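Researcher: Here's the sequence for the chain we discussed earlier.
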Amino acid sequence: MVVTQATKAPPSLLYMVKQVELVVRSHLDELVKPAGITALQYTSLTVLERHDGLSAAQLARDSFVTAQSVADVVRSLETRGLVRRERNPGNRRELLILLTDQGRDLLARYAGPVRELEERMVRDLTSHQTDQFRQALSKAWHALS
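Model: Thanks. This is the structure I predict for it:
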């Protein structure tokens, strides 16, 4: 039997999610390149903006990277003055990672352009569809977490 375009199965959802992730990361890398950071570093800063004072392990989990990767990210961000590390008063062996004022300023500077990128991603969706998309992604994430 010959498979025609009409009978081909659509791409898997996993494949489509990965495609979106890769194109978003590429655009985000280009967007934040003038600041001297990567999309991964930017993502880590946004995680700290929402939950300041995380351990490296928590930051790695919330940034979807390995502990080794987050160690490199934190070192680079600390060198740039965008984050600082402090001992956890409740557990002196643990270092907490905190966003600096310089890190907050960088996030504020890129908030508009990043919002525009997100709006571009969903521009062909209605606001209701965008809300549904956000909910569906959240449910998919929770189902696998």
